[in-house]
Amino acid sequence: MKQIDVCLTPELLHLHAMDNTIVIVADVFRATSCMVTAFAYGVDSIIPVATIDECQLWQERGYLAAAERNARKVDGFELDNSPFTYMQEMIRGEKVAMTTTNGTYAITRSRAAVKVLVGSFLNLEAIARYLRSEPYDVLVLCAGWKGKVNLEDTLFAGALVDRLKSHFMTAEDSALMAWRLYQQGKDNLLSYLANSSHIRRLQRLGIQRDITYCLQHDLYDVIPVLRGNSLVSMEL
């Protein structure tokens, strides 16, 4: 039987095998939620890069550029890390370069996998439906916060385990733990996350609507997939 596992932070990724595995990268607040939204609103492609300098190089080549550090937009770039930024007509058909504190780093660390997909609550069922049809094991990579575990990405992992539990065996305790946390919090994720570190961090910036938006389930039927060095929208 196929297996599903959860890596709670990129710092633990070296402990997980990625051969014969599809990796789902989740950075719920807010990078992967932004990426899913961008493709839902017609962006052509997104290049995830680890550093601000790399992002600036792509900007100089004509790409729209998004740079975030510590939940704030970096000066000199067109786009930030709010999903509402990616609902603008200006992004339709455009190529975007993006760097964030956690999410793009996690994506760039996952290239050895069979496929790398971008997951969020916004495209949860699209991801689950696709994985049910694939023959590979699954590893959910939680982007976390600067190497540390965070609650929202772990809850996303638990939600995906919940959707796949009849098709996949939970490989390790991290998957079981994530699933049990999601069972506890699923009826009101916003309340369940109220005292989490990233919620507090984002609330200080006054972006409550981003938090509420990113916790919505199944808004979009899109799956960003890494092809070469770019994310593109998978044909479903």
Automatic annotation (TrEMBL):
GO terms for molecular function: 2-phosphosulfolactate phosphatase activity; magnesium ion binding; sulfopyruvate decarboxylase activity. Its cofactor is Mg(2+). Coiled coil: none annotated. Belongs to the ComB family. This is Probable 2-phosphosulfolactate phosphatase. PANTHER family: 2-PHOSPHOSULFOLACTATE PHOSPHATASE-RELATED. InterPro entries: ComB-like, ComB-like_sf. Its EC number is 3.1.3.71. The keyword Magnesium applies. It comes from Fibrisoma limi BUZ 3. It comes from the Bacteria. It is an enzyme of class 3 (hydrolase). It catalyses: (2R)-O-phospho-3-sulfolactate + H2O = (2R)-3-sulfolactate + phosphate. Keywords: Hydrolase, Magnesium.
